[in-house]
Design brief:
By secondary structure, the chain is α/β, with parallel strands linked by helices. The chain has four domains: 171 residues, N6 adenine-specific DNA methyltransferase, N-terminal domain (Ferritin); 250 residues, 3-Layer(aba) Sandwich (Rossmann fold), CATH 3.40.50.150; 86 residues; 36 residues. Helix content is 51%, strand content 12%. A hairpin with a 2-residue loop joins strand 1 and strand 2. Helix 2 packs parallel to helix 12. About 1% of the residues have low confidence.
């Protein structure tokens, strides 16, 4: 299923679920967590079936019988074990009349409604995961059986069975993105798009140790880190220890659900004790191998004295107003991320663009921070990367274990014009764009072997040969395919045209995918060849501390990378201006002729 089809499926599922809410007596707050709970079950069931199939492939046989699967088998593969009564197929195939079905719970009592059955399913799932105890929604008796059955049916869409668990996970995240911002879009809190999370994880490259997200929201940093570690052939739960703080209890519940459905365990604290400005809830200062976060931007009215007493401010307090409050908490967060790292720790986080060159006490803190030599990479991100806001942002990276030859250097990347348009209001980095930016960081770090592996990966996908030639061949294939499609549709009988167009649309979509890979290969190889870093005007530059001091300790990538040169399009300027002037005269002449004709017509009509 291509990206366009998946986006349509996401939208259709959301529209159907939201229509049911509109027809019910439930508020959005009452409705959203139970709906996410059902999606959680659907996603957990998809992963359960896929992992069960993997387990059964190599299952040992004793006395002629295959050994039964156990919960521990699923834990090993970062999936949640589901008892029969918690499996989605069981729930969606229950008879309409629950009371007449004589379903009996473990305590011997008869179950009288579908809501009770689903509540019981949630209790069974909680029993499989200590961190889920008391977290999953169990308010399904507030739903009528008809409404609940329809929701179960909607999320059992056959297309989900066809596309597999990974896409179900994406749809789960899509619903999170629709619900979470509605609850958490105040006070500068925004749901973190996967594109930004992936970039942070890819550059930090977590492998083992303690990972903290002290503004963890719905847990995207943990999930993506788990995927990264698992992709390297390790077990995330064995290699990593996850700690989270999240002031909003609703978001903390989402985080625990999101982690559990991906088979991850962690310690997440919420409520007042998890207010990071005033509490180090896990006593982790100086202990973390990795820190990742998307904190709320530009928070004000933080009590200065309480923040000072809570510590973790190695560079001092930011500016304090007459009310003894920190008027902008961006540099509180920046200080915390640094303070939580151990002697070789790495941090990556999202921050408001304004923080890269803000003045006053912020500038003093930034200067001290830069002089540590631990600022590693700065990336500017353009508009429309967030689901609910169009604001730009920056990604900051610290590395206390930097190589000695990089101690006085910072890599600046201005990616504001490098992205893929998803739709009118949303941009993202494609997987290949993520790899390309990551490759620049590798070259900066001297890790040319990783860069060369990426070039080999491009060749494995596109074939051997010169990337420019491959791209031109792909472009020619696209032109031929579009021409072929047009001819086939035009020559077909009217009743067959829609079907033929759909078939060609699928082929064209696949060809566009190949074309995009080829374009990214050309983009990377033409800049860095076989793997030698060089500054690219308008995009990336390595600056040393002397140059940064000369820029008043700014960390804004645009201040260093400069402006990209305008590419010569091979057109003679004076010749083209002459042609444009000639075209303009012809258009004016045509305009005058039409005006005269209109005036004459009006006269003849006697008006």
């Amino acid at each position: 299923m291509d990206n366009k089809s998946i986006k349509k499926l996401e939208a259709d599922l959301w529209e159907s679920a939201d229509l049911l809410r509109a027809g019910s007596k439930l508020t959005s707050q009452q409705y959203c967590m139970p709906v996410l709970g059902l999606l959680f079950l659907r996603y957990a069931y998809s992963r359960f079936k896929r992992v069960e199939e993997e387990i059964m492939k190599d299952r040992p046989v004793r006395n002629g019988r295959m050994m039964p699967v156990e919960a521990s088998d699923f834990t090993e593969k970062s999936a949640l074990y589901l008892p029969k009564e918690a499996q989605y197929s069981y729930l969606v195939n229950l008879p309409e009349d629950i009371k007449a079905a004589n379903i009996v719970a473990e305590n011997g009592q008869q179950v009288n409604s579908l809501g009770e059955v689903v509540n019981h399913a949630m209790e069974l799932v909680e029993a499989q995961s200590e961190q889920l105890a008391g977290v999953l929604p169990k308010e399904y008796t507030n739903f009528t059986d008809d409404l609940l059955a329809e929701l179960l049916r909607i999320f059992n869409n056959n297309a989900l069975d066809d596309v597999g668990g990974d896409v179900i996970g994406r749809i789960y995240e899509y619903f999170l993105s629709k619900f979470a911002p509605a609850v958490a879009s105040d006070d500068g809190v925004f749901f973190t798009p996967k594109s930004l999370v992936k970039m942070i994880v890819n550059i930090l490259e977590p492998t083992s140790g303690v990972l903290a997200d002290i503004a963890c929201g719905s847990g995207g940093m943990f999930v993506q880190s788990g995927d990264f570690v698992n992709s390297k052939g390790m077990s995330a739960n064995k290699a990593m220890t996850f700690y989270g703080q999240e002031k909003v209890e609703y978001n903390a519940q989402l985080c625990l659900m999101n982690m559990a459905v991906h088979g991850l365990t962690g310690v997440i604290k919420s409520g007042n004790e998890a207010n990071t400005f005033y509490n180090d809830a896990h006593n982790l200062a100086g202990c973390c191998d990795y820190v990742m976060a998307n904190p709320p931007f530009n928070v004000d009215k933080v009590k200065a004295e309480a923040a000072q007493n809570a510590g973790r401010l190695p560079f001092g307090l930011p500016g304090v107003n007459k009310a003894n409050e920190v008027g902008n908490a961006n540099y509180l967060w920046i200080s915390y991320f640094y303070a939580y790292l151990n002697e070789t720790g790495r941090a990556g986080f999202v921050m408001a663009s304004s923080a890269t060159d803000s003045q006053g006490k912020d500038k003093d803190i930034r200067e001290k921070l830069i002089k540590t030599g631990h600022v590693d990479v700065m990336i500017s991100v353009g508009n429309n990367f967030f689901y609910t806001k169009s604001l730009p942002c920056s990604l900051w990276f610290f590395d206390k274990g930097k190589a000695e030859d990089l101690k006085d250097k910072v890599l600046f990347i201005d990616s504001r014009n490098y992205f893929t348009v998803v739709d009118r209001t949303l941009n993202e980095w494609s997987d290949w764009q993520l790899k390309n930016i990551n490759a620049i960081v590798w070259l900066y770090r001297g890790e040319t072997d990783k860069y060369q592996q990426l070039i080999e990966e491009y060749h494995s996908v596109l074939g051997d040969g010169d990337f420019d030639e491959i791209l031109h061949a792909q472009e020619d294939s696209m032109k031929e395919l579009r021409s072929e499609a047009k001819a086939a549709v035009n020559s077909a009988a009217k009743k067959d045209r829609k079907k033929i167009q759909a078939e060609f649309d699928e082929k064209i979509s696949e060809q566009i995918g190949w074309l995009e890979v080829a374009k990214e290969a050309v983009w990377l190889y033409n800049k860095f060849g076989e793997g030698e870093y060089q500054d690219i005007p308008g995009f990336c530059k390595i600056a040393d501390l002397t140059e940064i001091e000369g820029k008043s300790w700014s960390l804004t990538p645009g201040a260093y990378v400069g402006v990209a040169p305008v590419e010569d399009d091979g057109v003679d300027f004076h010749e083209r201006m002459g042609e444009i002037h000639e075209e303009l005269l012809k258009l004016q002449e045509e305009s005058n002729r039409l005006m005269a004709a209109i005036s004459q017509n009006i006269k003849e009509m006697g008006l």
